[in-house]
Structure formats: C-alpha cells, structure tokens
Design goal:
Elements (H helix, E strand, L loop, with lengths): L12 E6 L4 E5 H10 L8 E3 H6 L1 H8 L3 H12 L2 H50 L2 H14 L5 H21 L1 H15 L8 H23 L16 H15 L3 E11 L5 H8 L5 E7 L4 E6 L10 E3 L7 E4 L4 E4 L9 E3 L6 E2 L19 E3 L6 E3 L25 E11 L1
Antiparallel strand pairs: 1-2, 1-3, 4-14, 5-6, 5-14, 6-8, 7-10, 8-9, 10-11, 11-12, 12-13
The structure holds zinc ion (ZN).
Protein name: TLDc domain-containing protein
Keywords: Coiled coil
Pfam family, one: TLD
C-alpha cells in the first residue's frame, strides 16, 4: 500500500493523526517534524495504518477511552502470532533439552550406583583385613566340618577359640580396631564429595522451563475488564470510569468489587449503616435519588464507629466523589486529605469538610462538608469544593444533589479488593 505524502515528495503516508476536528495523514517526515514542534506529542492519537489494517483490536484501542478496555486490547495486539510462536518454540526447545537431561540424570544415577557398589566392596575387603575375617570363617568352617563327629569337647574347644578371636579384637585391642576403621573411612569419604552435575543441570533447566512457561501463560491470560458486581445503579460505562479512577489514583490493580450491603427505601438508617461498615475500608458507596440521580464516593479510608466524630486522613489521595448523571469524578485535594471521610454514629457517611482551625466550626446545618448523608438516610446535602475538587466546568447546579428536596431511595455499598 502506497499513499504519497502531499507535503513531502517521495515519502509515503504511514500514520493517521486523530485531531479534535480533523484527521491528518502523516509520513515519517511529517511525524518527525511534529515531534520537533510539539515535544508533548500524544502518541496514543497516532494510528499506524499498516498495523490498523492487520489488527482491528489495535484500531479499536485508538478510538475508545476506557483504560481497562484499552489495556485488554493492547495485550491482544501486542501478543501477535510471531511473538507467541517464538516463545512457544523456545519453551519446546527447553522441553527437548529436559528430556535429554533426564536421560543424562538416569545415566548419572547408574554411575553413582556402580561407584557405591565399588565403594562398599572396598570397605568390605578392608574390614576383612582389620577384623581378621579369615580366622572367623575358619572357626565356623571347622565347626561345620565336624558333622557327625561333633561332641561337647569339640564344641567347647571352638567356643574358646572364638572367644579368643573376639577378645583380641575387642577387649585387648578395641581402640586399635576402631581406629583402623576410622582411618579407613577417612580415606574413603571422598566418595561422598561426588558432584551431581547432571542433576544440577536438570534443576537449572527446569527452573528456566518454569519461568518461561509461567511468563507465557501469564501473557496469554486475557486481563478482562473488571466490573462492579451486582450493581443496579451504575451503568457499564460509568463502572469503567470509576474503576479506571480507582486504579489510577491508588496505583494498584483491582481484583474484585463486591457488593457487601444494599438498602432500599425505608430500610436505610445510620445505625444499620454503622453496624455494617464499622472497621471496613476501600468502600464504594452509591446512592440513588427519586429522580434517578446516581452519585456517591469511594475512599480507601477505614470507617470507624465514633460517638464524638472524627475525620480520617487519606494518605493515598485516592478518595473521590462522583456523579453518574454528569459523568463527573471529584478527586480529593491535597490540602483536603485530612478530611477524606468523617465518622460519627449520629450521621450517615460524610465526605470532606473544612478545618476547624481555619475558622469554621463543625456544624452540619451550615453545610460544611463536600457530601453528607444525614441519619435517616433520606436527606443530605452536597457542597463540593472544600476537600474535594470541583471541575472547572462544574457549577453548583451540576452537583449530585445540591440543595434540592430529592430523597435518597437506594444505597449500595461495595468493597474493593486489590491484587
Ligand atoms: Zn509528510
């Protein structure tokens, strides 16, 4: 495929550049010029035409914005056939080497067995010398040859002979006999220092096999996008935005997001809330108003029952409020991290607020929190912008539920677990 670049004679177009209002064809020279002009060129906006023609998953990844979907598709197109085949061939090579190496180990074991037999034979021969084995055998032979001529006198004669035989070895010379055996073993213990080379090689090869096949299996294990399980309130699209935000802010991979509690209409109150969340962290809390406005918050902070009220600091700066209606995320501010959540058994969940030191006193009527749910779980208020950041585009009327008289009708609480 050849498309000539109109700006550079003799140069072919290789890329498509996605802009807000238009699409440009770029050749290598165009791309280099752009790089020189805009150091911050966003390569994710650049589409390689050849690659796009071969891999629809590559093209798709360029036109969507869900981090999770992009990660999933990226893996698909980076794992191209050549790459995977090469890896498999490497693993198959190792398997062949392993098979040969197993035979080598078998031979090595046979050699070891042979040399052990030789060693044992050598020890035997030396022991025969040390304990005068021939003499012992002679006495037993003598007894056996007596047969019919055996009589008490002959037996006691032989018993005496054997007694002296043992006496010389033990009572008279025990020390010396034992020393001879020690010396013999000391001389032979180099047998034990034999190296198991083939066996060690096998283990090394196996480790290599293990590493490569584990890496291979990981690579061909698709990382499916995570979802928020059993939610009735959050749309697929907004789930993706929430999860992307959690991954981005916490710098951790999400393992699961499980529904732990769900309340509907009159069931909701502060007492039940606190009984169920006390001691839990990484909670994602979602509310729905009568008019289908859906909003909520995520915070890694631990919810702790408190009679007097206390703020919990978010060291990770990963807390955020959100509004599904406006598809907005309101991240915690650096200066607001001390006030990520507020725990007080008299109220429902409260997020953000202002420092008492900065002159405000903590009174709920004065609406000094970014988001607060009162004890009956029916009403609350929001005033985002204190500890949580309001987007430049956000105005008061885009907030989750401002000053309206809308009532909460449903609440879902999820716990996020990380890998
Ligand atoms: Zn060009």
């Amino acid at each position: 495929m050849k498309i000539p670049c109109l700006k550079h004679q003799g140069s072919d177009v290789h890329f498509i550049f996605l802009k807000e209002q238009q699409v440009d064809f770029l050749c290598d020279l165009c791309q280099t010029n752009m790089l020189d002009q805009h150091q911050q060129l966003d390569f994710s906006k650049l589409i390689n035409i050849q690659k796009a023609l071969k891999q629809p998953e590559y093209l798709t990844s360029k036109i969507i914005n869900s981090e999770q979907l992009i990660t999933f598709l990226k893996e698909l197109y980076q794992n191209d056939d050549n790459n995977i085949n090469l890896q498999l061939i490497e693993i198959e090579n190792i398997i062949q080497q392993l098979q040969i190496q197993l035979t080598n180990v078998q031979i090595e074991l046979q050699v070891l067995q042979k040399s052990y037999n030789e060693f044992r034979q050598q020890i035997r021969e030396n022991l025969e010398y040390i304990i005068k084995f021939d003499e012992f055998k002679r006495y037993i032979d003598n007894l056996q040859q007596l047969q019919e001529t055996i009589n008490p006198q002959r037996i006691s004669e032989n018993e005496r002979n054997l007694y002296f035989y043992f006496k010389i070895l033990t009572k008279d010379n025990l020390q010396s006999t034992q020393n001879k055996i020690f010396n013999l073993l000391e001389y032979n213990n180099q047998y034990m220092n034999q190296e198991n080379n083939q066996f060690n090689n096998l283990q090394e090869l196996y480790n290599q096999f293990n590493q490569q096949s584990t890496a291979f299996k990981n690579q061909i294990n698709p990382k499916f996008p995570k979802t928020i399980q059993n939610t009735q309130l959050i749309t697929k699209e907004f789930q993706s935005k929430i999860i992307d935000t959690i991954i981005q802010k916490s710098k951790k991979q999400v393992k699961k997001i499980n529904l732990i509690y769900k309340w509907y209409k009159s069931d909701l109150n502060a007492e039940k809330f606190w009984n169920n969340v006390d001691g839990q962290d990484n909670l994602l809390i979602v509310f729905s108003l009568q008019n289908d406005t859906i909003f909520g918050a995520y915070s890694p902070c631990k919810w702790i029952k408190s009679q007097n009220g206390q703020y919990v600091k978010d060291e990770t700066l990963s807390s955020f409020l959100f509004s599904q209606k406006y598809s907005e995320i309101y991240p915690i501010k650096q200066e607001g991290q001390e006030y990520a959540i507020y725990c007080h058994t008299k109220y429902g969940p409260i997020f953000g607020g202002v420092s008492i030191l900065s002159g405000y006193y903590f009174t709920f009527s004065s609406n000094n929190n970014d988001l607060q749910i009162l004890s009956d779980f029916k009403v609350g208020s929001s005033n985002i912008g204190m500890a949580y950041q309001i987007n430049s585009s956000g105005s008061l009327n885009t907030l989750p539920f401002g000053q309206s008289e809308q009532k909460i009708i449903m609440c879902e609480i999820f716990q996020v677990s990380f890998i």
